[in-house]
Amino acid sequence: MNLAETGVLTLYYLVLSVLAVYSIHRFHLVRLRRRTPPPPRVTAAVYPALTVQLPLYNEPNVAARLIDAAARLEYPGPLDIQVLDDSRDETSSIVAEAAARAAAHGVSIAQIRRSSREGFKAGALAHGMQQSASELFAVFDADFVPPPDVLLRMVPFFADSRVGMVQARWTHLNRDESLLTRVQALFLDAHFAVESAARNFGGRFFNFNGTAGIWRRAAIEEAGGWSSSTLTEDLDLSYRAQLEGWEFVFLNDVEVPAELPAALRGFQDQQHRWAKGSIQTARKLLGSIAGSGLHARVKSEAMFHLTNNSAYLFTVLLALLIVPSMLVRYRYGLGWMFAIDLPLFAASTGSVLLFYREGQRWAGRKPPPLRELLAVLPVGVGMSLRNAVAVIEGLIEEGGHFLRTPKVGDGAIVRRKERMRVPIAELALSVFFAGTVAAFAWAGHWGALPFLTLFLGGYSYVVVKSVV
Question: Are 282 and 306 in contact (CB under 8 A)?
Fold first, then answer.
């Protein structure tokens, strides 16, 4: 075996091991969730002045729905609503009409517009906070429909002066629209009901998710305020606030429904933003976390949390290495080495599937059908190439352009359909893995087919969904 072949095998097993570690970490979260009950919460009927912030940018299909829902919010204390409208289309007129309708019913509401989108959502939230004297700020994105009693259920937790943020769990208005939305729902249910809950209940850091949460002004200010230095201003501020000693509360039983991206393009844009922003936040804050006096378990969980999206980059590397590594082993009769792959793949896929199944349990839902549960694997693989690019961008860039995720809402405003874009890189990988599957099947190397088919299915899914 020459040096290049040795290098291929070494790098392959290194990448596979790193992915296994990130995947098995999900088993740790499941275990932590099962073993750690929600801590006792001391609440009181205290309702300080609160501002509801509704950040909007070109959302004609959902703007009125959101404002109408916000106008129905119940709150016994001083309450006002800020529609932070950075729109450059007909959304602004829709907002004006909906705000006037709410004001006519006695709601204190203002449409706040800026001359530019400087700082994007972070800039809009900071601008709105400067124009309010409230102690608390609730944030609801355009695709959310907050229920009337959500403030009543969340605000009492601020009776504890150490609490800086309270987060509700997302649910999904259109989860059953397609396989893509059902898979997204599995992703998000596990993120909240397992991941966020385990971290919060287990004394680790977790994050405000950009919406369906309430902040204390003092926590925002003491942490340095909203910043657009990353694309995930919510994650960034969350960690800075917790580093300052503020406590967060996750409420698994408080649900706020939202609309999932129905089209693959919107889902990809959203995932790209989250992946890039999380790596930017890791680059920005991991040094401070490592040098802090936090317990080692808090530091290690923060590392896994903030770097988790790097697994997409390792997935692409694995896709590029899996065939060469197989050829080397078959060439030199090293079939026994496949015995190393099997437990690593089994542990990785098993822990991931358990994680998403557990998410349904803690979200109070029935176990998902096997077809949907298994679909999370190829969809994750299919998203890996675009998100790997996001990871690289996050390592070398600050900030970035905030691309909104299109919402359908009631479909009142119909946009011109975007030109079809064939994902060339995913298409090339699909063709490559199709040829590889055929070649390995013809050669009788049946043991390699399950691994190769996973990559074929993932990249082919993205290609098909992009052109159909």
Answer: yes
